[in-house]
Amino acid sequence: MITLKTDDEIELLRNANLLVAATLAEIAKIIRPGVTTLQIDALAEEFIRDHGAIPTFKGFPNPYGNSFPGSVCTSVNDVVVHGIPSSTELRDGDIVSVDCGTKLEGFCGDSCYTFCVGEVSESVRQLLKVTKESLYKGIEQAVPGHRIGDIGSAVQTHVESYGYGVVREMVGHGIGREMHEEPYVPNYGKRGSGKMLKNGMCIAIEPMITMGSYEIALMPDRWSCVTQDHQPAAHFEHTIAIHHGKPDILSSFEEVEIIEKQQH
Ligand code: MG
Ligand code: MG
Fold it and tell me: How far is the CA of 38 from the centre of ligand 1 (A)?
């Protein structure tokens, strides 16, 4: 069942998502070669709890009965999603996708950003740029009267024109009091197909895009999903509300992008 949110509920969702945005900005400040993803995780957990919220990913169960140990997912290079924070140091030229979820006053925030560590190759920078562009192309389609397939089609058309792959196994989702609600929001699809979009729907749109083949594999830790060809993958995610006839982006990359510009 898809629950439509009231204006008040959308504002609560915005608060939870702006806390995710602020957390990602704190992370942006410390990303550099030598930093570990466990350090990123500790910073995120402290920042989220200091603001009266809960990191929703911590303890989240998978189908194998394992709880996610981190407060954020940190997915490095060929890890597409659900990377577990570890003591391995980030190296110059790496990329790391940090997916962050909060629960604040009963509502969920969910947003992801792929960061560059030091000097990253031009080809990988392009993968990140195009993936982020595809997110906004998907968001543009999120208006009442359009369908879920319009979002996926816009994402897919954009990234495939660069020869990139769209991960099939993982998709965006409705969001509200629960992190994952209906409907599912694939990053591929046909225009005019799927459920009709309506005012009050709140969804996380999250292209997971691979440099090469879109085929992925689950690592023995039963969380990390890697590309089978070990080429890099990017992941950008915003939570949005369909509100007053248009998409209203509840999360934000604004602060992260200001910090990125200062660093490069
Ligand atoms: Mg997420
Ligand atoms: Mg999500």
Answer: 18
